[in-house]
Design goal:
The protein has a single domain, classed as Rossmann fold. The longest helix has 22 residues. The strands form two sheets. The chain has a five-stranded parallel sheet, with helices on both faces. Strands 4-5 form a two-stranded antiparallel sheet. It contains five helices and seven strands, in the order βαβαβββαβαβα. It has 132 residues and is α/β, with parallel strands linked by helices.
Length: 132
Amino acid sequence: MRQESSVLMVCGGGELHLALRKVLNEAGMQVRLVQSCAEVQRTLEEFSVPAALFSDTSLPDGTWADILALATQGARQVPVIVVSRVVDINLYINVLEKGASDFIVPPFYCQDILHVLKCSTQASLGVQALAA
């Protein structure tokens, strides 16, 4: 079951994700924070599926691509939004080509993040409907 007002954020910590978490909380989203691919896998298996997943570009045990693979296993289709500290056009193109929903960099504004979430979740629901 998808929780429409919850997101999963996977990051190694730092001010970047504190800023994003603050914006998400201000938008009324419940944020569950994890720090590794292994934690993402356990969380997706044990809890309700979040509306979206925000992933750092690199993690202690993998990258955003590993998170994308976990988020799209089987019937589960959780949109993945990759969060980068800097604009990297090659990474941006790679992220979108591999199937992530979006690629964002700071500064984070509530209206922009809500738009990204809305577009990502609508696209994910459309893909699931086509697959059914």
